[in-house]
Amino acid sequence: MLQVDVAVPQWMLEHEKEDQRPVRNVEGPVSLTSVRLVFPLTDTESGETRDVIVKKLVNTAFFHSKETGRTHWKRVIPGLNIVVPWPKQDPIEKKDYDADTLRLDVESRTFVPTLLRPPMPSSVIDELRNKYSKFRTRHDPEYIEAKMQEDREAEARKKQVAEMRTPLKEINRRERKLKKAKGKGTLTAEMLEQIGRLIARKKQLTLGPLEASTEGAAVAT
User: Suppose 27 and one of 1, 15, 98, 137 were both cysteines; which one would form an S-S bond, judging by CB atoms 3.0 to 4.6 Å apart?
Assistant: First the structure.
């Protein structure tokens, strides 16, 4: 911390009888931008080692440890390619307490799965997965039976609606039966003769104006 000289006002000195110093040295805050790294650098020509202020550092050689889950890297002074080591830290001493579990108990195998009983209570399964999820594929027999009963009731309602007949449906149904009872019938010789006369008459009416136009064109030539 930075030591700063602070002038103590007179009204504060009156309340403190033991310490009457008008100026006192106290610790003051330091801005992060004012912090500089001091590194002992050895001159290659003279071999003299002196403390220098490092203006810039570059982080390189990143390494991620899967065991500890931490990422490590090296600090290098650009231009000189000098690795600045990290400050040494004292190892953390871990104390054992009465409530701590022994390593022997932690590494001992206390659960052996078997096919004779489930690995967990049945009530825990509903807590691990959503019981009412639409993506669920395995259901209880009671739930499946209830859904099948709903489908049977829906089919019964559809069948009941189809069997219900209104007076208009009854009239249409009776007319269809009468038409079906009459049948298609057969054409007699007289009926065929009348149909032929009607077709010839219509054909003559359609060909009459066409023949007149062709005759007029021949006379004009």
Answer: 1
Q: What are phi and psi of 76, to 5 degrees?
A: -125, 140
165: helix, strand or coil: coil
The Cα 210–Cα 206 span in angstroms is: 7
Q: Taking all residues of the chain, what is their mean pLDDT, rounded to a whole number?
A: 82
Distance CA 73, CA 67 (A): 16
| Alpha-carbon dihedral sign for residues 25, 26, 27, 30 | negative
Question: 10 Å Cβ neighbour count for 77?
Answer: 18
Please give the model's pTM, rounded to 2 decimal places.
Answer: 0.34
For the chain, counts of helices (H) and of strands (E): 6, 7
CA atoms within 13 A on the CB side of 49: 3
Could you read off the pLDDT of 101-139 as tens digits, one per residue? 888 888 998 888 888 888 788 788 878 888 778 888 888
- Whole-angstrom CA distances from 102 to 97, 98, 99 are 10, 10, 9
Cα angle, residue 20 at apex, residues 16 and 21 outer, rounded to 5°: 130
Kindly report the number of other CB atoms within 10 A of residue 102's CB atom.
Answer: 9
For 193, phi and psi rounded to 5 degrees? Answer: -65, -45
Cα 59 from Cα 38, distance rounded (Å): 17
